[in-house]
Amino acid sequence: MSKKLFIPGPIDVSQDVLNCMATQVIGHRSEESSKLQEEISLKLQKVLYTKNTILLSTSSGTGLMEGSIRSCTSKRAAVFSCGSFGDRWYKIGVSNMVPVDLFKVELGQAISPEMVDKVLSTGKYDLITITHNETSTGIRNPIEAIGEVIKKYDDVIYCVDAVSSAGGMKIEVDKIGIDICITSVQKALGLPPGMAICTFSKKAVQRAKTVPYRGTYFDLLSIYKYIVDKNYQYPSTPSLSHMFALNFQLDQILKEGLDNRFLRHENMAKTVRNWAEDHFQIFTNKNYLSNTLTVIENTKKISISKLNEKLIDRGFEIANGYGELKEKTFRISHMGDYTVEDVVDLLNNINEILEL
Ligand code: PMP
Question: 24-254 architecture in CATH?
Fold first, then answer.
């Protein structure tokens, strides 16, 4: 039986999008393929409010995280982490022999612009990473205020992991000054997993040119050059099926209207937050709440796995806490094409199961 997935990605994909995945394949060096990639790029530039080049990657988002820290760190990277996905950047840096330092805050708290300023003022770093929407804790980091700080440091590349927020929360890439903004398609964009996207600024291009060992598959400069020098091509064979589906889904997103889409996400978030306040407690610092997922403290000490088993019988699924927050918290996502009615339906089912 198919379920409604309220886990923070992947989420359900509309039948129309699934049908696009079944489009007959075209040659990846054809003009048709270039046109497809160009169309996708123009639409993504709208969704991400940027004029920067859009890079596609046939991988999940982690691939572009690896590509960005490896391709664009010349001196040393500063990773700011408020949870598991922030920590992932650090592990990626270390395993790629990128000089990197980790700066952490307590789980449930956000990275502050002051913290970033203090670290950058040492002059040791020329790339920083921030997780916009930390999927393990439900924090939305203040990427706009952090962007203001970074504007003081000309040589710093600003990388943002927007894997679980792009398409559901407004990210004005150019206004904020983000050099590399990464996302995956299986979350708020509402596609099956298997493709990742990032924006790539001129400054990032110049930096990558100075980095000698950028790897191969995730060498962002190579992906960029195929777009610029070869008219929207891709260095290897991309998932054309995803590209057909992404092109279609971006039309749907733009048809809905970006502001409407972001508001729908906000309204779904408010619905879940109100419910969480009534019956449990929100785990996350309330000044920095995500609009695509809510992390709830398990104040009633229920078995989250048992709740989920019962939900699955009813055709729904939510997510347990991530890593060390398992059973201590649970996560309800509200992203993609879901509506407030879908969320209310889920919450009513939880109420019935838990007799709330
Ligand atoms: N960053 C964040 C914030 C995420 O939520 C995830 C996936 N849960 C990732 C990175 C990794 O993305 P992917 O699974 O697409 O590689």
Answer: 3-Layer(aba) Sandwich (3.40)
138 lines ligand 1 (CB under 6 A): no
The verdict on the CB of residue 183 being under 6 Å from ligand 1 is: no
Whether ligand 1 lies within 6 angstroms of the CB of 96 is answered as no
Number of C-beta neighbours around residue 215 at 10 A: 14
pLDDT in tens, 173-216: 999 999 999 999 999 999 999 999 999 999 999 999 999 999 99
Map out the domains of the chain as residue ranges: 4-9+257-354, 24-254
**Cα 49 from Cα 70, distance rounded (Å):** 25
Six token digits for residue 103: 């700066």
Residue recorded with tokens 């997103």: 253
The verdict on the CB of residue 184 being under 6 Å from ligand 1 is yes
| 4-9+257-354: CATH class | alpha beta
pTM here is: 0.98
